[in-house]
Amino acid sequence: MGGIATGIELNQMLSHDNKAQLCSWFLDCQVLCIRGQSLTPYQFADAGRIFGTPQVQLLGDYRMNDPKEVTVISNYNKLAGGKPHVRATHWHTDDSYFAEPAKATALYSVALPSAQTKTEFINSYAVLEGMPDALRNRIQGRYAVHKYHSRRGKAIVATRTPEEEALTPDVRHPLVRTHPETGRESLYINPNRIDHIEGMDLAESDLLLDELFEHAFQECFQYAHAWELGDMVIWDNRCTMHRATTSFDITERREFHRLLLKGDKPV
Ligand SMILES: [Fe+2]
User: Fold this and answer.
1) Can you name the residues that pair with 123 across neighbouring β-strands?
2) Ligand 1 centre from 15 Cα, in Å?
3) Which of 126, 139, 191, 262 has its CA 20 to 30 A from that of 68?
4) What's the CATH number where 16 sits?
5) Distance from the alpha carbon of residue 86 to the mean position of ligand 1, in angstroms
6) How far is the CA of 235 from the centre of ligand 1 (A)?
7) Distance 10 CA to ligand 1 centre (A)
8) What are the 10-residue block averages of pLDDT along the chain, 267 residues in total?
9) Ligand 1 centroid vs 168 CA: distance in angstroms?
10) Do 29 and 233 meet the contact criterion of CB atoms below 8 Å apart?
């Protein structure tokens, strides 16, 4: 998992073949960095269109107006108690509380701290492939209920307006997911949003989820991307998890522009 492409300028016209190559690398690498970019927010949204359809994010908090598909992710947005802070430090995949979660997320780095900073990823194909049969047999064919406010979630999540809340009722997704483009199976979990496994009592479901998470979080399934200014990193939410790291002086600004690309119903 993980690839870095260089010598590509996303603010220039790319040929159909170049775009097809990038899409193919994205599917193969799961996390693809296109290094050394210089992108206005509109150019960033256009670069996202190589891979899919940027969507306007439901939660309005960090949305830009020009264009409205781009949001700003910063340790300086919406300060908790006036202090800079980092969100998304627990393993997750984006937007799993939607019936059709975003297929991919792209970040473009616009400000980085002086010390090296990373985003960490888990290869969810490898997690399933490396799972002991006994554990796999217990999840095959089962569904998990994902909620915005999960009973088990540890992350601090943004407050939703009543309208935003009404648009995201609880959803159920299969634990073993088949990727719609590669046909490969992966473990589809989101520790931030999974509340329980359907058809089990809560205690039994909690034990099984603990076991799944312990297996999935092993270092052998991980890859860390070390950021450079001008990196555009796009990852596949259908077969990866990610988390932000905090090993830097968080009074220094770390800021990204973000796109979420429209996805489909997990099967
Ligand atoms: Fe995320």
Assistant:
1) 240
2) 30
3) 191
4) 3.60.130.10
5) 12
6) 10
7) 23
8) 97 97 98 98 98 88 85 82 84 96 98 97 98 98 95 80 85 98 98 96 97 98 98 98 94 96 98
9) 17
10) no
Residue 11 counted as domain residue:
yes
| Within a domain: 266 | no
Residue 204 lies in a domain: yes
- The answer to whether the predicted template modeling score (pTM) of the entire model surpasses 0.85 is yes
Tell me how many domains the chain contains: 1
**E-only strand ranges, 112-254:** 118-123, 143-146, 171-174, 176-178, 185-187, 194-197, 222-226, 232-236, 240-244
Residue 267 lies in a domain: no
Instruction: Specify burial of residue 3 (Cβ count, 10 A radius: 0-12, 13-18, 19+).
Output: middle
Q: How many residues does the chain have?
A: 267
Question: Is the peptide bond preceding residue 41 cis, with omega within 30 degrees of 0?
Answer: no
CA of 5 to the centre of ligand 1 (A): 22
Ligand 1 mean position, distance from CA 211 (Å)? 22
Q: Answer whether 45's CB lies under 8 Å from 54's CB.
A: yes
Environment of ion ligand 1 (residues, CB < 5 A): 88, 94
CA of 189 to the centre of ligand 1 (A): 13
